């Protein structure tokens, strides 16, 4: 792929680091972390002082295969995804046994990448099972800010990007979510140019593109992107997805090696293929992408959210209850299933997409066993389930180690769990959890400071005796659809209230 990247920094950056050479030169967007690069390719030019915004707006739109912008009705606030703006908190009266069924929503990480992918598609894309979470609402704002029309209804999210004519999405929305950055691929592929703010998302580590300022990316000489060979030093989900989207519309063939294998990457590849792309090996380390001139809007259903499902599986375990859930792809959750089974949970697959998790036999004084976990890229144990599993371990019997290898800052939930009575010692990216058994946690006031850390506090609240108040509901709303309603349906005493 050949493109120029012009970084626009607010502050003077260190020089970008060259990390790899294949057909093209690969630079890191990171100024500090050397693990890998987000694989932006080509010549990098640092622009200082920053160019005025307007100069980047609505520049030349290359002769293109997209239909001209036509009149569309913008979605009204009634059919837009509901977003909560006031800060709220959850109040849980814990220690109850749960039972019943949980309906699993569509995958957050899959939906976000697919929504960005619709920017490659001519005509209307209809996406089903898009979760009603605030990250999706933000991503839809990003698309609207570019000129896409978006309609949200019970029949799916309908997106038409034919009228997109801006290469600069709303930076306020971009700063809220990680996945906003994914639009850089399709914008480059479609317009040869993109001006995007560096992304937000969970504050769980350096996450190398977390710099202040904006990235101005340009295809070399305003030409199309050109395919090439890329080896990822680390199988980054975001880098794999960005490259896959961009390469779908690049000229020629792109080959990725050591690509991320997460199910959400495979789902994005399915979506792009359903749109007319030709991607072989999506969801494996070796991906071959044959670029197409244009893609068309397909009808597509997002996979169920394995992280949401995993969180409810642990809700069953930590409350020594039995909860069934569907739809769920058990093959996406094998590492968690193995660990929960080793801890003593019974996991029964009743139908291909229907699972029951039970820890009821442990109710009379028999605790679940502590088991060690080490997070790793898929198919390893997901980092997005580490905080929740740590809460569970604090209610098992005996000591257990938690090793976080994906993000170096994903331990912020520990001090909040300690307030609830958990015995955990942290040493760098590892934690020793001294499990003290069922009902060993007690209610308290805690604060969620990131999405999965927040989910871990919800689990703790369900297991704790007394009342737990969890402030920072907005972090949890980023990734869990109707959390309190789903938990109420299985018998939890949880409510949401304004945080005064
Ligand atoms: C929106 C979305 O899909 N988010 C998911 C995605 O995040 P995201 O795509 O940000 O995660 P990555 O796989 O890129 O990051 C994993 C690791 O690679 C490092 N890295 C990444 C890029 C880079 O250029 N240099 C570098 O060193 C990161 O600092 C981190 O330590 O995958 C993570 C890992 O499964 C999940 O926790 C997130 O929920
Ligand atoms: C880290 C997460 O999300 P994001 O990458 O969107 O911040 C997550 O879903 O746990």
From TrEMBL:
<dbReference type="GO" id="GO:0008360">
    <property type="term" value="P:regulation of cell shape"/>
</dbReference>
<dbReference type="Pfam" id="PF00275">
    <property type="entry name" value="EPSP_synthase"/>
</dbReference>
<keyword id="KW-0961">Cell wall biogenesis/degradation</keyword>
<comment type="pathway">
    <text>Cell wall biogenesis; peptidoglycan biosynthesis.</text>
</comment>
<feature type="domain" description="Enolpyruvate transferase">
    <location>
        <begin position="94"/>
        <end position="487"/>
    </location>
</feature>
<dbReference type="InterPro" id="IPR013792">
    <property type="entry name" value="RNA3'P_cycl/enolpyr_Trfase_a/b"/>
</dbReference>
<dbReference type="InterPro" id="IPR005750">
    <property type="entry name" value="UDP_GlcNAc_COvinyl_MurA"/>
</dbReference>
<protein>
    <recommendedName>
        <fullName>UDP-N-acetylglucosamine 1-carboxyvinyltransferase</fullName>
        <ecNumber>2.5.1.7</ecNumber>
    </recommendedName>
</protein>
<dbReference type="GO" id="GO:0071555">
    <property type="term" value="P:cell wall organization"/>
</dbReference>
<comment type="similarity">
    <text>Belongs to the EPSP synthase family. MurA subfamily.</text>
</comment>
<dbReference type="GO" id="GO:0008760">
    <property type="term" value="F:UDP-N-acetylglucosamine 1-carboxyvinyltransferase activity"/>
</dbReference>
<dbReference type="InterPro" id="IPR050068">
    <property type="entry name" value="MurA_subfamily"/>
</dbReference>
<dbReference type="InterPro" id="IPR001986">
    <property type="entry name" value="Enolpyruvate_Tfrase_dom"/>
</dbReference>
<keyword id="KW-0963">Cytoplasm</keyword>
<keyword id="KW-0132">Cell division</keyword>
<dbReference type="GO" id="GO:0005737">
    <property type="term" value="C:cytoplasm"/>
</dbReference>
<dbReference type="GO" id="GO:0051301">
    <property type="term" value="P:cell division"/>
</dbReference>
<keyword id="KW-0573">Peptidoglycan synthesis</keyword>
<keyword id="KW-0808">Transferase</keyword>
<keyword id="KW-0131">Cell cycle</keyword>
<dbReference type="GO" id="GO:0019277">
    <property type="term" value="P:UDP-N-acetylgalactosamine biosynthetic process"/>
</dbReference>
<dbReference type="InterPro" id="IPR036968">
    <property type="entry name" value="Enolpyruvate_Tfrase_sf"/>
</dbReference>
<keyword id="KW-0133">Cell shape</keyword>
């Amino acid at each position: 792929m050949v493109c120029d990247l012009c970084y626009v920094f607010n502050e003077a950056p260190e020089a970008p680091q060259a990390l790899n050479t294949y057909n093209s030169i690969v630079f890191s967007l990171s100024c500090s972390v050397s693990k890998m690069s987000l694989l932006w390719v080509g010549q990098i030019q640092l622009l200082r002082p920053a160019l005025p915004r307007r100069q980047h707006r609505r520049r030349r739109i290359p002769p293109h295969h997209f239909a001209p912008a036509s009149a569309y009705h913008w979605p009204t606030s009634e059919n837009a995804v509901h977003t909560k703006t006031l800060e709220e908190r959850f109040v849980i009266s814990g220690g109850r046994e749960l039972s019943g069924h949980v309906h699993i929503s569509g995958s957050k990480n899959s939906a976000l990448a697919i929504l960005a992918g619709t920017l490659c598609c001519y005509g209307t894309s209809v996406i089903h099972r898009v979760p009603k979470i605030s990250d999706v609402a933000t991503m839809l704002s990003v698309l609207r800010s570019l000129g896409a029309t978006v309609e949200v209804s019970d029949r799916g999210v309908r997106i038409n990007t034919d009228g997109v004519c801006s290469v600069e999405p709303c930076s306020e929305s971009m700063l809220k979510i990680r996945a906003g950055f994914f639009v850089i691929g399709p914008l480059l592929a479609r317009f040869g140019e993109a001006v995007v703010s560096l992304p937000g998302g969970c504050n769980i580590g350096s996450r190398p593109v977390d710099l202040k300022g904006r990235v101005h990316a340009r295809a070399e000489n305003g030409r199309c992107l050109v395919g090439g060979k890329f080896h990822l030093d680390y199988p980054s989900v975001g880098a794999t997805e960005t490259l896959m989207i961009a390469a779908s519309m690049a000229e020629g063939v792109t080959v990725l090696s050591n690509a991320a294998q997460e199910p959400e990457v495979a789902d994005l590849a399915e979506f792009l293929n359903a749109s007319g792309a030709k991607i072989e090996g999506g969801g494996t380390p070796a991906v071959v992408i044959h670029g197409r001139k244009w893609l068309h809007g397909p009808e597509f259903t997002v996979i169920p959210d394995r992280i949401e499902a995993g969180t409810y599986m642990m809700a069953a375990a930590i409350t020594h209850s039995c909860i069934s859930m569907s739809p769920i792809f058990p093959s996406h959750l094998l590492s968690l299933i193995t660990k929960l089974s080793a801890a003593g949970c019974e996991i029964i697959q009743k139908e291909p997409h229907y699972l029951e998790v039970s820890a009821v036999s442990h109710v009379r004084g028999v605790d679940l066993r502590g088991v060690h976990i080490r997070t790793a890229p898929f198919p390893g144990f997901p980092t997005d389930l580490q905080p929740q599993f740590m809460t569970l371990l604090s209610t098992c019997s005996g000591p257990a180690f938690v090793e976080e290898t994906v993000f170096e800052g994903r331990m912020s939930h520990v001090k909040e769990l300690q307030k609830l009575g958990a015995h955990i010692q942290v040493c760098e990216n590892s934690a020793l959890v001294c499990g003290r058994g069922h009902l060993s946690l007690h209610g308290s006031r805690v604060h969620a400071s990131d999405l999965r850390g927040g989910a871990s506090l919800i689990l703790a609240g369900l297991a704790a005796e007394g009342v737990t108040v969890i402030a920072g509901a907005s972090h949890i709303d980023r990734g869990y659809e109707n959390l309190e309603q789903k938990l109420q349906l299985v018998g939890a005493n949880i409510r949401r209230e304004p945080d005064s």
